[in-house]
Design goal:
Blueprint (H helix, E strand, L loop, with lengths): L2 H29 L4 H22 L10 H25 L5 H9 L1 H12 L7 H18 L11 H27 L8 H23 L2 H9 L3 H26 L4 H9 L1 H13 L5 H17 L4 H17 L1
Helix pairs in contact: 1-4, 1-10, 1-12, 2-3, 2-8, 2-10, 3-7, 3-8, 4-7, 4-12, 5-7, 6-13
């Protein structure tokens, strides 16, 4: 990879971080007016349409035609990564605050690690990982309690936080199972085609819920009272937050080390807090800043190689060099 490509990858990751971090505020604004079921239905449909159009006009539409048994495997991933995740996220954003939600989402690697260690037995445990997990959860608790027991939002804020937490856990399950299931497909499929399939399958899975929730008349009536601000929020999270941000992330991952990508993703709560403060006046208390800092440091520790193991390896190498 050339230096020019590396700079473009860093620029792509920076853009992805800004888009994803800002998306929490736009989702919050839109969720205030668009019912969660309708919002989820429209976003899934819109994102599916964007990816299908891209594949069609790029001449890659044949990539989504797979054997039936592969669709069944992908439906398991779509259930956690799209259907459950998207509904809980958009429903939770109606009540949760953008900065809190971004911090909870930044903890996704922690839940992936816990699933890998406890359930899949695919990853070992170390002191550094345990310390990072403890710090991250401690910081998150400080943030969630930073407004005291009387949040001024009643029980709705807690309800929103719990739904966002559920969305994060479903996303972590999707990530944990993703590589294992994708490797069992009859033929390899690239990230753009697989995302298009996930969105379409998720849309089909969610369709019975949408049909049971509202009639066509209810659907049209609900859309008539939505303000331009909410429509802008919907357009942002569907086009920029889903399609563009994902493409930038895919581009960056193919050219940068995972550790570099994780550093940018850990910055999303900072972006979300800043945008939320500037646009909707979300108050950032000292406890929020302290707790957020502790959580981000903890998340960073869990994503790095074990310090003591690396230190030991360095000492061994130095010893070998001194003997030679």
């Amino acid at each position: 990879m050339t230096e020019r490509e590396r700079k473009w990858a860093i620029a792509a990751m920076l853009g992805q971080t800004l888009l994803a971090g800002s998306g929490f505020t736009f989702a919050h604004n839109a969720s205030k007016e668009i019912p969660p079921v309708i919002f989820t239905f429209l976003r899934m449909f819109g994102a599916s349409l964007i990816f299908v159009c891209y594949l069609f006009f790029s001449g890659s539409i044949q990539k989504i035609f797979l054997p039936f048994k592969d669709y069944f495997k992908l439906s398991v991933l779509a259930l956690f990564g799209v259907t459950i995740n998207q509904f809980l996220f958009l429903a939770g954003m109606k009540y949760a605050l953008p900065a809190n939600s971004a911090l909870l989402y930044a903890m996704t690697p922690l839940f992936v690690m816990i699933i890998s260690i406890v359930f899949l037995k695919s990853e070992g445990f170390s002191f550094q990982k345990g310390l990072g997990i403890a710090m991250a959860f401690t910081g998150a608790l400080i943030v969630l309690f930073s407004r005291g027991l009387d949040f001024g939002f009643g029980e709705e804020l807690w309800f929103g936080n719990l739904m966002i937490l559920g969305a994060v856990i479903s996303w972590a399950i999707y990530i944990s199972l993703g590589k294992k299931i994708m490797n069992t497909l009859s033929q390899p499929i690239d990230s753009i085609a697989s995302t298009a399939l996930f969105m379409m399958i998720g849309f089909v899975q969610f369709l019975p819920i949408a049909i049971g929730y509202f009639t066509l008349n209810d659907f049209i009536t609900s859309l008539q009272f939505i303000s331009p601000t909410a429509w802008i929020g919907f357009a942002y999270v569907t086009v920029l937050g889903a399609a563009v941000a994902y493409l930038l992330l895919t581009y960056a991952i193919s050219r940068l080390e995972a550790s570099k990508v994780s550093i940018f993703m850990n910055a999303q709560p900072i972006v979300a807090a800043t945008v939320s403060y500037l646009t909707i006046g979300e108050r950032l208390s000292a406890l929020f800043l302290i707790g957020g800092s502790i959580a981000i440091i903890g998340i960073f520790l869990t994503q790095q190689k074990d310090f003591f193991f690396v230190k030991k390896e360095i000492e061994i190498d130095l010893d070998r060099n001194s003997r030679s």
